[in-house]
Amino acid sequence: xxxxxxxxxxxxxxxxxxxxxxxxxxxxxxxxxxxxxxYTPAPSAVLLPGSIEEVQAIVxxxxxxxxxxxxxxxxxxxxxxxxAANGELVLALDRLNTLSDFNLVDRTVxxxxxxxxxxxxxxxxxxxxxxPVDFASxxxxxxxxxxxxxxxxxxxxxxxxxxxxxxxLKLVTGTGELLDLNRGLMKNNAGYDLRQLAIGAEGxxxxxxxxxxxxxxxxxxxxxxxxxxxxMQAIMHVLTAFQAEIELSAFEFFSEIALEKVVAHQDLxxxxxxxxxxYALIEFEQPNDAAMEKAMALFEHCVEQGWVYDGxxxxxxxxxxxxxxxxxxxxxxxxxxTPYKNDISTVISRVPEFLAEVEAVVNQNYPDFEIVWFGHxxxxxxxxxxxxxxxxxxxxxxxxxxxxxxxxxxxVQRYGGSVSAEHGVGLLKKxxxxxxxxxxxIEIMKGIKQVFDPKGIMNPGKxxxx
Amino acid sequence: xxxxxxxxxxxxxxxxxxxxxxxxxxxxxxxxxxxxxxYTPAPSAVLLPGSIEEVQAIVxxxxxxxxxxxxxxxxxxxxxxxxAANGELVLALDRLNTLSDFNLVDRTVxxxxxxxxxxxxxxxxxxxxxxPVDFASxxxxxxxxxxxxxxxxxxxxxxxxxxxxxxxLKLVTGTGELLDLNRGLMKNNAGYDLRQLAIGAEGxxxxxxxxxxxxxxxxxxxxxxxxxxxxMQAIMHVLTAFQAEIELSAFEFFSEIALEKVVAHQDLxxxxxxxxxxYALIEFEQPNDAAMEKAMALFEHCVEQGWVYDGxxxxxxxxxxxxxxxxxxxxxxxxxxTPYKNDISTVISRVPEFLAEVEAVVNQNYPDFEIVWFGHxxxxxxxxxxxxxxxxxxxxxxxxxxxxxxxxxxxVQRYGGSVSAEHGVGLLKKxxxxxxxxxxxIEIMKGIKQVFDPKGIMNPGKxxxx
Lengths: 466, 466
Fold this sequence. Notes:
Chain A has 466 residues and is α+β, with helices and mostly antiparallel strands.
């Protein structure tokens, strides 16, 4: 473990209190790693500030002493954006976990960076409102981290990413100064929108310490439809047909292999008997009978066109939840196969050919690899999962998957896609950033980091090397 | 008029062709001014490039020769963002007016910067889709300009600003390099979202030359409801009640004085006999009878609560259009009074007290000033209009309004509001920027400009002085 000068430890303790400076091995391991694994945590200390002023004081001290800081939320990230492997100070926002200043007219609430996503969702529900950004780690991830990775999830097609729900943002820059950006305004065209830069910056421009989050109307009687389709192109036709007439809140997809595994390993039934190559899960509001009639007419149209072979619709909340599990339980189901995972996107219309190209190159080189596809097809974001063949040593599998990554990212580049649709870049995808961003873009990003963080102490080495 | 070195004029002609370099007085007047007026246009030349490559060549030449460039769209701006008053080169994007690469699955279309807003709206309609950003100058404003000022308008409450419809953006930086940002992706968390910076930058970071714009589902059978309320606080209650149950596409307001003038000067009738202090115009989709039943139940609830005194609902498209004119014709109606105008915002909930404070200070100091309020109350954006009293010389009125501006912006600052909700800063509001943005924010903006435009040739003097 990296050692800090005792005088610095003392100065840090003077800021946050002695019990809020952790240097024991277990704390350093816990706070030095996110859900990415693969890395060895090695922070020099973990700090738990209790106020924005304490965060500022820590950053000023770190700037003065040239100490690197890793801002730390729920550490549920999957690109190692919150990993501290090089003696950094971990600045954990856990204690800034207050919800305050709720306003029903503005439909906003002020959140400390350490507020858990689920805490915000539940708070919204108690007010008769809704926070629509939702994903598997909502029970652990924190708002500050969500903002820093611009978290997406399963409702993006209607509700957008975390970016769309940040009405105000407080950021402590690399010099310890506080920016109070946009202050909850819905309309503000007075100069550059710096808030947008901090969103998705993975802590490299400063520490997100607080946000004013927007809430919205609670959806009415959500219905879920699962359809089976002969191929990906048919899925795209279904998407286009439904979107033309209904405001969908989700349009997810998964493959037959994914469905087989989920049904075999969870306490779930197939949605219908017909076996299809791909399935779409469609969610929409059903405030009255007319909405369902419209959906059923669309379903029949899709069947007539040959785009859909079979389908089922939820008749109750519990049925809707069970249909959702067919999609949501895939990730957990395949964990025992220690899958290689990749989170990529293209424009929506090119997903079918993109999938086919990736499959072709993997099948050609590694015919025994089993590919499990699922994802948010309605927004072009697919999750590629390759299961480790039984008997293949894990190290060998990982080495082969390294090769796969390069092929996949070369295809992503040719399609003008993104090497990270929603998980961010962090350490994990840093070396692949150039497949999605030009040399000039990366140079400009570095220039912008220099403006916010002249000493380069904010989460250094994440996204790019300075 | 500013004179350019003949060798430079020749070099510019070699790039765009001789007939695309205009230096005659009438062209310079036309292209040197936007709808703000007040300024004396004095560009050194007007250039009409026909391709992105030509734009790049012009910018490279300008950077080499240290010549300032003013990017120019429809010049419908109201903050003098497109004014060329200091011998700048006007780079007019008129000829980059092609719509291409429409994709029905992605629901996107590629637009040259010079595409007129209405052209995009009509194109969308022809494809059975909808471009929802709409405002009074849609017949002249260009997409590049809309993006550069992040244009808002009358549907922001549901559809957001121009920012929300830019899926991809091509920007020529101050060094003449081309950034191809986001390429139409719905999900892309691979590094800073530089696209967001260019949106609303008023041409100070580079020239927006092309954008991939998103389109959406066409709204079904829009209904319009006009309600009369006793005061602004009641209007806020009505907003909250309706938003809790219906996805509104507009929530506008206007005062009795505004209504009186519109009815007196346009061929329009009062919506109902009851005279109220304030009126709300509410628009929503009515795909079936249930939607209208819900709206009527909400209306009755509002009447019972004493928030609404009277109301009327459109029974046909033409009735809906006439109700909209009560709000949309205000601006034109009051033009003969050469009104002082200001476009400001606060968080929505504070609008009533904000309006009261502004009225109090104006009434106290200038009791003969007539104030006309209207605006987009659903997003906190109000338009303040003060009519020139008959007999008061225009210069004296302008001087007095200068004082009013300072009072208004001091109130804006105390409310944490914006000195420019949707019109941008340009030259007109530059000196007031500090009422909405901190010294540190302005310093960071300047640092960012330096990264994109190291020579400071892109629309210098707009938003801030470098």
